[in-house]
Amino acid sequence: MTQMNRLAGGQIDRNKTCKFTFDGKAYTGHQGDTLASALLANGVRLMGRSFKYHRPRGVLTAGSEEPNALVELRAGARQEPNTRATTAELYDGLFAKSQNRLGSLKFDLLAINDRFSNFLTAGFYYKTFMWPAAFWEKLYEPIIRNAAGLGSLSLEDDPDVYDKGFLHCDLLIIGAGPAGLMAALTAGRAGTDVILADEDFAVGGRLNSETLTIGDQSGAAWAAQAMTELRSLPNVRIMPRTTVIGAFDHGIYGAVERVSDHMHTPDAGKPRQILWRLYAKQTILAAGAIERPIAFENNDRPGIMLASALRTYANRFAVTADKRVAIFTNNDDGHRTAADLHAKGVKISAVVDVRPDAPRSMDYEVLQGEVVDTKGRLGLTFAEVKQADGNMRTLECGALGMSGGWNPNVHMTCHQRGRPVWNADIAAFVPGADLPAGMVVAGAANGDLSTAGALRGGAAAAKQALGLKGRLPTMPETEDKPINLKPFWYVEGCSRAWLDQQNDVTVKDVKLSHQEGFRSVEHLKRYTTLGMATDQGKTSNMGGLAIMAELAGKTIPEVGTTIFRPPYTPTAIGVLGGRHRGQEFHPKRLTPSHRWATEQGAIFVEVGNWLRAQWFPRKGETTWRESVDREVLATRNSVGVCDVTTLGKVDVQGTDAAAFLNKIYCNGFALLAVGKTRYGLMLREDGIAMDDGTAARLAEDHFVVTTTTANALPVYRHMEFVRQCLYPDMDVQLISTTEAWAQYAVAGPNSRNLLSKIVDQDISNDAFPFMACANITICGGLRARLFRISFSGELAYEIAVPTAYGDALMRKIMDAGAEFDVTPYGTEALGVMRIEKGHAAGNELNGTTTALNLGMGRMVSKKKDSIGSTLSEREGLNGDGQLYQVGIKPVDANDPVPAGAHLMNADGPIDAAHDQGYVTSACFSPNLGHAIAIGFLKDGANRMGETMQLVSPLTRVHVDVEITSAHFIDPEGERLRA
Amino acid sequence: MIIDHPLLGPRDAAEFTYMGDAKLIDRPDWQSDTAAQDFYEYGYLRDNPAGWHEELWFHEAGDRSWLVVTRNTVTHEISKVELARDVARAKGRSK
Amino acid sequence: MSKMRYSGFKVIKEALTGHKGWTPAWRDPEPQADYDIIIIGGGGHGLATAYYLAKEFGQKRIAVLEKGWIGGGNVGRNTTIIRSNYLLDGNEPFYEFSLKLWEGLEQDFNYNAMISQRGILNLIHSDAQRDAFIRRGNAMLLNGADAEMLTTDQIKARYPFLNTDDARFPIKGGLAQHRGGTVRHDAVAWGYARGADSRGVDIIQNCEVTGFRIENGTCLGVETSRGFIGAKKIGCAVAGSSSRLMSKADMRLPMESHVLQAFVSEGLKPVLPGVVTFGAGHFYVSQSDKGGLVFGGDLDGYNSYAQRGNLPTVEDVCEGGMAIFPAFGRARLLRMWGGIMDMSMDGSPIIDRTHIDGLYFNGGWCYGGFKATPASGFCFAHLLAKDAPHPTATAYRFNRFEKGLMIDEKGMGNQPNLH
């Protein structure tokens, strides 16, 4: 029999049949169904298992607050654990499995936990599993972990694409029920830019679940008509399937649009979901309310659900959970469910109402009393009723609707730490006064539970949000009744009565928590896990609070709520990541010679977001060392070229440019001649070295400053801080030109010969000596800059051209240098040569080293004020025993001297207490034929020639080394002045 | 958060880089007798109020202005945004 | 006070007799007029301090004052990681001491805090990062901690779904500390509270300190929402609110308060055996015993006392997660929250006397506070009881900034949001 529980009517499209499978069994449903409604239509009530006791679970709700009916939707890499069957739209070919079971859903072996529930009470695990200590990780925890968790990930890469977008509006309306629609109509007609977002695929909210009328049409028809009008308004954007997940500062809301989740796979070129950042001047929260259950013994069997959910299934989806239905209520709303189901031909076993003045019915029996227990192993079969007169009744029913009142959806009002307030009329928390700025609440979310109240509230909220004057328009006639609720939270004497159905928190657990002193609402939550399930307490918290209040002799508002946190409903991590994954995680910055280097077969390395050539392998070279050694030797013997564009460049101009550099560098720049370059060391204000580089004075009022690649951004930011915040009247302008100029280092004894072929001007040693700089032209007129600076220690230049010419210049250099066998070198060879020369770089400028540590203590001028100069004088940064940059070489030339190794005295113990220093940078020097390193050693300046132990227990290295000068090559600097 | 840039209008705070208390504008005099103590307090001690806080933000992905933003550290409400250069001048900083 | 021992036998006995024998884990005493020692702050550090004062240092007449509910600060809102993989001399011995205390803690305080040494792995993405991690791993080993360098293949064997094929920043190895792991964070507060209470410590909740009574440079007690309470010594352990509290003693501290967001996914069957930290993005993750992926990243970056953050950081963290674990895309973020960090000027904490006699301070934990809980409590108790710093905490002094003796693991200098 197919769709045995399908009723007449509803908003499903009976012309479109969808085939689907659940746990391997084939079923059919219709477009417009959810997985939950389709399963119910097919007589399937059992859809899951609870977290701890593995109790059988069916749907509790018909919405996103569902704690029970969680399934693994889809297969393979698209498998989604914990998907709520109540919101999963049915599509043809849908595939779903139940989860959190060992064996089949009907015969879950872990259901044994339920037999031992008396041992597995709240917090039992804090009191045991402590002996023997080693057993926790090895035995107890693995068992607990494997039993815990809910659904499973496929562990395959998510194949879908996610997008991010930004939208701005005057008015964001969250929720498209009666209040939201009326607000949208009011604002839309006034010409306001409106975004109307609703998590559901059908707009209308509860109007789709009810049989009530608005004016002379059904609520659902009124909603459809409103939609038609809104669609015609160009200033209104309607976003169904869009959940607003959080209210962030200054009117920024996060929202997730499920673009393709209602399809088998996303259409080509379409994302699965989009994360929208919504910038709203005003917001109306019209998120409705959620009905709450009642706690009674065994209230968790499949078939027991919210009365409003039964109504939604019947009216919207044309489904009844069973042919016989009972209702347990404390208010008039429960009777509405009975009436609607009865009208659809469902047998109402009885309505059980706790109120003595319950409305009577001609159609079915109304009992004054309470449901005290239920039966049915995998689904409800009978409900036991204790009547007010003391008589017991057994009701035969396969579904039982619970109606305990309604909780307004105040979540978003509390995302900025606002607190809800108690409304005794409806016995529920409603939004407080401390709403996020720009937010107005309307309709059921505001505690206005009638349809007429929602329409009025929506219109009034729109007027308030937009500052519109005038009276509210006349509202259409509709239902306007109070729900006449008598607060009723749990049945006296119940024990295994579920509050949190997913996490298996019962009334008994709350009582135990109180007994053990966990009495704050936060302690209750954390000790029992009440409200920590995937619904975050939407259906469970109020019951727990009410019981806690009673035990503590307090009122519910005195007990208070836990904190509402985003996201409103669980949100795929994928959509929060967007397209930032794989190679697109971070943008790539490519150097001007990148294309050329790619043609050469260069190996690239990530340097921040840059990709730089690391080395250029040649045919026959089998290891990176072969290539690097060749590049180093070729450079030192003839000439090499390296792209150094990534170094930060800052143009400094103005009559106070030199005075400004005097502030940012610890050494002096005021007297630097035009046409000269100087090494500069920049300190942070705390006296620690921040960065180093060069400043070239191209004119009296024009410098070009270079920074290290890594610090290009922070140094520029720092310079702007000094300029704007500390010396606002200095005549100096800064601009970062890192990407405006392509810059190449040309190094080696033949570098001048090579560049002479390109540069239009005389660059002989006399005309262009060491540390010279100039604006020049090349190739017969192209503007360029030339700096005679050297990182390698060789005769060397850096030549810069506008970036557009970078590729051409590299090719030109290679052409012109062919006669010198010019060799391109990458960052590895660059590193080797700077270590051979003893130049500090990022590993040495590690944010904890001072000028003194770097062997540049005397550079810090005492004659002027510069950033960091005062604090660099603190006692802890000076005096004996400071670290000092030294060179390190192995005693046995075959030994390594690895970076990260620590230095110990020759015959001393090897431990932290006797640590003498550490290696920062190391390499094999092809010029010296052995490994070399630089590092920091306590009192290192006075320990040249000392033999020490170098240890790296992590990488199992222990060798003898000799401390030397860090200048391994050409210590007198003759080459670079040649 | 949204910062209402005095020149550019409202901008997402994600465009900015945060530095800290705007008192960092008040860099001490290096020649004062108490310079060592002054720089220690300037560099290291903060009021760190729970409430209104004048603080420095840099429009890194924008026009590279340093701004002084008056923001409440409890509610994140922003009441005033000024160019740091103007604030610095008003405090008597010059060259 | 309860002297009840927890054990498996006790659980079984109570289950069979209707759970009537369980008593409150701690009392709810009225404050006395005065105490020998008052600890302000009923978080992990404050409760641990009280516990060790009573248990290890023979102190009596101790009270812990908590303005809300115990365990409600950062011990109740962190990402539960413990480790001792620090670099610098001032830190590593302290955090290793802490890790050793964690290792025996459950038996010591008779509470199962689910301390799980499932290992922590820091991924390496560049040669410079490898050099730095080798230096750090060596520092750990030289201090008696454990560390191991793993190759990419070894990492892949343990985390086969890690993105090693298409990563923007390739994984070039990792530094592992196998003794690191996770702990059930709330249980730490409760275990210390119960242990302290059973040794006579008065834990007084809903008691907010509104001021200090200081006369002639000596602190005589505290004004509270429940009246004046006198004490010979007062220890402040209110990280996140340190500046607010100490301003009542006219102190300015070397720190800013910043919000750090944290995240948990819906429950999932086990996927992650240990803790993984993504060194080129801003992301770290572990999986709780309950099945949730617990993850986080950087600070939002601006001063805040709001215990909540904003979307850009949420997205940044999830981008990092998707970059290395693209299989997590279909797991859902369940909840996000924010904790307020005392971000100190060098990224390291302070456990020290103040310039006011009788007033002691513990704070500035940045985001290292949770893993430090046992050692912080022990060392603060040592300081309070003996008026001398514990040997592993000698560097955590107020005056280190004045003297230039910063303990700056990250090398970021005096800008708190960068630590």
Measured by DSSP, the beta-strand proportion of chain A falls in 25-35%
Distance between the termini of chain C: 42 Å
**What's the level 1 CATH class of the domain at 162-289 and 408-466 in chain A?**
Alpha Beta
What is the helix content of chain A?
10-25%
How many beta-strand elements of chain A? 50
**Helix run count of chain A:** 21
> Can you tell me the overall shape of chain A?
elongated
What do you see in this structure?
The complex is a heterotrimer of chains A (978), B (95) and C (419). Chain A is of the alpha+beta class. Among the domains of chain A are: 1-155, Ubiquitin-like (UB roll), CATH 3.10.20.440; 162-289 and 408-466, FAD/NAD(P)-binding domain; 293-404, FAD/NAD(P)-binding domain; 488-552, Arc Repressor Mutant, subunit A (Orthogonal Bundle); 880-978, Elongation Factor Tu (Ef-tu), domain 3. Chain A is 20% helix and 28% strand. In chain A, the strands form 12 sheets. In chain A, strands 8, 9, 12, 13, 14, 15 and 27 form a 7-stranded mixed beta sheet that branches. In chain A, a hairpin with a 2-residue loop joins strand 37 (689-699) and strand 38. The radius of gyration of chain A is 38 Å and the shape is elongated. Chain A starts with 12 loop residues before the first strand and ends with a helix. The relative contact order of chain A is 0.07. The model of chain A has no long low-confidence stretch (mean pLDDT 96). Helix content of chain B is 18%, strand content 35%. The mean pLDDT of chain B is 98. Chain B has 95 residues and is an alpha+beta fold. A 4-stranded antiparallel beta sheet of chain B has the order 3-4-5-6. A two-stranded antiparallel ribbon of chain B has the order 1-2. Chain C is of the alpha/beta class. Chain C folds into 2 domains: 29-80 and 185-254 and 346-418, FAD/NAD(P)-binding domain (3-Layer(bba) Sandwich); 116-180 and 256-344, D-Amino Acid Oxidase, subunit A, domain 2 (D-Amino Acid Oxidase, Chain A, domain 2, 2-Layer Sandwich). Chain C has 10 helices and 18 strands. Chain C has helices at 8-16, 44-55, 92-109, 127-142, 152-158, 185-198, 242-246, 311-324, 369-386, 400-403; strands at residues 34-40, 62-65, 81-82, 120-123, 148-150, 174-177, 181-182, 202-204, 209-215, 218-224, 227-236, 255-267, 275-278, 283-287, 292-303, 332-344, 350-353, 359-363. In chain C, a hairpin with a 4-residue loop joins strand 13 and strand 14 (283-287). The relative contact order of chain C is 0.18. The model of chain C has no long low-confidence stretch (mean pLDDT 96). Chains in contact: A-B, A-C, B-C. Strand 30 of chain A pairs antiparallel with strand 16 of chain C.
